[in-house]
Amino acid sequence: MAPPLPLIVLLMIHGVSGADWSVSYSPSHICALKDSTVIMRCTYTYPTGHQIMEVFWTKTPVKDNGEYPDLSKDPEYSQRLQYLGDKQQNCTVRLSHVTLKDSHMYYFRFTTDKDKWIGKSGVTLTVTDLQVESPERVTEGDSVNLRCKSSCALTDRATFIWYKNSQPLTERRDRNNELLLQSVRREDSGRYSCAVDGHTHISPDVQLNVMYPPRSVSVSISPSGVIVEGDSVTLNCISDSNPPAEISWIKGGTIVGSGRIFNISKISSDDSGEYKCKSINEHGEKYSDTVTLNVMYPPRNVSVLINGSGVIVEGDSVTLNCISDSNPPDLNFSWFKENETSAVGSGQSFSALQSGRFYCQAHNQHGSQRSDAVTVTVKGRLVILYISIGGVCGAAVIITMLVIW
Ligand SMILES: *[C@@H]1O[C@H](CO)[C@@H](O)[C@H](O)[C@H]1NC(C)=O
Ligand SMILES: *[C@@H]1O[C@H](CO)[C@@H](O)[C@H](O)[C@H]1NC(C)=O
Ligand SMILES: *[C@@H]1O[C@H](CO)[C@@H](O)[C@H](O)[C@H]1NC(C)=O
Ligand SMILES: *[C@@H]1O[C@H](CO)[C@@H](O)[C@H](O)[C@H]1NC(C)=O
Ligand SMILES: *[C@@H]1O[C@H](CO)[C@@H](O)[C@H](O)[C@H]1NC(C)=O
Ligand SMILES: *[C@@H]1O[C@H](CO)[C@@H](O)[C@H](O)[C@H]1NC(C)=O
């Protein structure tokens, strides 16, 4: 039994018109980079005989006062949204300067003179920023991969670019979204960021910190010239390492201090010697070359050495020697007789011919010091008696006699 004719007609009319309402989005999921411009491609159909009255996009699939809110009237979107479609079948829309907050579903809504339709399936927009992913601790020689990460796989084909300290890296060592640093060097330390070619968004900087053992360890001495006793002297251990090294100071074979700066506030001659510093961190250690501190000082412990008792016989002499300790040791000596202002001699040794108290004064370029006085006593008198005994075969015998009193 066939159905009554009016029902068939009704089914046909409804079927034809229902099939004609559609909205399709291609693609239906978009992953876009922050600050970029997104084009949401869209086509729509409606039954023939209808005339389009209104077309707009919405992000709220819930009616408000009987209609969906029009996105182009939303102040957050109005400046950035541009309808590129038409009033026949193209409902493409463009959204520029997308922000993370724009991540949402969007729907196309249109009304004809007879009815209304919304593309319920919607298009999903995910907006992502870029983050550099890098290992926290890296040691020189390690192989390091930095990754430019986005929260979703970018819909548009992306060529990644890398920056180090805000300068684009020209040396191409990247693959897809990774920067490959094989056998990392300490020069690779720096701030890294990444971007996608053709886009303004740049990831935040990430610090790559390459650790390495101490290198080029050296000592500088201040002041750099001649060091004189009493001076303040600073030794500075210069060492390149990451993390910063622990410094210790070694004089001879013993540790005499620690810290990068070794201060000697009032240097004495005892501080003369060979110094070096040792720089150590968890990756290794290194010694500096040896530096020599040669502390200069004026003469001291000046004294006179007297040859014998200091008692001489008139007409003879006694040698006085001036000894002292000084640096540099090349000295000038002056000899004085006590209570006389002008020098009676110079040079390290002095021959005294007369009684008196003598002292020496030693000088170098840093100062002078005098010795205590020593006493020279001339005793007696030399009397020479000539006794001639008659010549034997022309020869004479001479007897010399020495008399002291
Ligand atoms: C719709 O319009 C956009 C923008 O003008 C254009 O790029 C796109 O090709 C059009 N789509 C179709 C199916 O005509
Ligand atoms: C070393 O001496 C210098 C100058 O006299 C001073 O500025 C510095 O603070 C001293 N450093 C130490 C560690 O004593
Ligand atoms: C030199 O003199 C100092 C005091 O000024 C003294 O301590 C030291 O022992 C002396 N040295 C010699 C070798 O006599
Ligand atoms: C004095 O010194 C000289 C040389 O140093 C030495 O030959 C001589 O024996 C010394 N005289 C006395 C009395 O010590
Ligand atoms: C030098 O003078 C002092 C006093 O000024 C005196 O005590 C001393 O005896 C004098 N020495 C000599 C060797 O004349
Ligand atoms: C040593 O003596 C010479 C000549 O007397 C003089 O020219 C020189 O400056 C003196 N040197 C020192 C360190 O006193």
Give the key terms.
five-stranded mixed sheet, 39 strands, 50% strand, single chain, Immunoglobulin-like, binds 2-acetamido-2-deoxy-beta-D-glucopyranose, mainly beta, six-stranded mixed sheet, rod-shaped, disordered N terminus, 405 residues
**What's the CATH class of the largest domain, please?**
Mainly Beta
Major sheet: size, sense and barrel closure? 6 strands, mixed
Q: What structural class do helix, strand and pairing data support?
A: mainly beta
Q: Please, how many domains?
A: 4
The tally of strands reads 39
Number of helices: 1
Strand content: over 45%
CATH topology of the largest domain: Immunoglobulin-like
Question: Over all CA atoms, what is the radius of gyration?
Answer: 52 Å
Q: What is the overall pLDDT average?
A: 88
Distance between the termini: 180 Å
- Which molecules other than protein and nucleic acid are bound? 2-acetamido-2-deoxy-beta-D-glucopyranose
> What form results from the Cα inertia axes?
rod-shaped
Poorly predicted segments: 3-18
What's the CATH architecture of the largest domain?
Sandwich
Described by its quaternary structure, the protein is single chain
Instruction: Look at the structure and name the CATH superfamily of the largest domain.
Output: Immunoglobulins
User: How much helicity do the residues have?
Assistant: under 10%
Task: Write up this protein.
- The protein has 405 residues and is mainly beta.
- The protein has four domains: 19-127, Immunoglobulins (Immunoglobulin-like, Sandwich), CATH 2.60.40; 131-204, Immunoglobulins (Immunoglobulin-like); 217-293, Sandwich (Immunoglobulin-like), CATH 2.60.40.10; 297-381, Immunoglobulins (Immunoglobulin-like).
- It has one helix and 39 strands.
- It has one helix spanning 5-19, and strands spanning 22-25, 29-33, 38-40, 42-45, 52-58, 81-83, 93-95, 104-112, 116-118, 123-128, 131-133, 138-139, 144-149, 160-164, 167-168, 174-175, 178-181, 190-196, 206-208, 210-222, 227-228, 233-242, 246-251, 254-258, 261-264, 273-281, 284-287, 291-293, 295-306, 311-313, 318-327, 332-337, 345-346, 349-352, 356-364, 367-370, 374-379, 387-392, 395-399.
- Strands 30, 32, 33, 35, 36 and 37 form a six-stranded mixed beta sheet that branches. Strands 2, 5, 8, 9 and 10 form a five-stranded mixed beta sheet that branches. Strands 23, 24, 26, 27 and 28 form a five-stranded antiparallel beta sheet that branches.
- The radius of gyration is 52 Å and the shape is rod-shaped.
- The protein starts with a helix and ends in a 6-residue tail after the last strand.
- One 2-acetamido-2-deoxy-beta-D-glucopyranose binds next to β29.
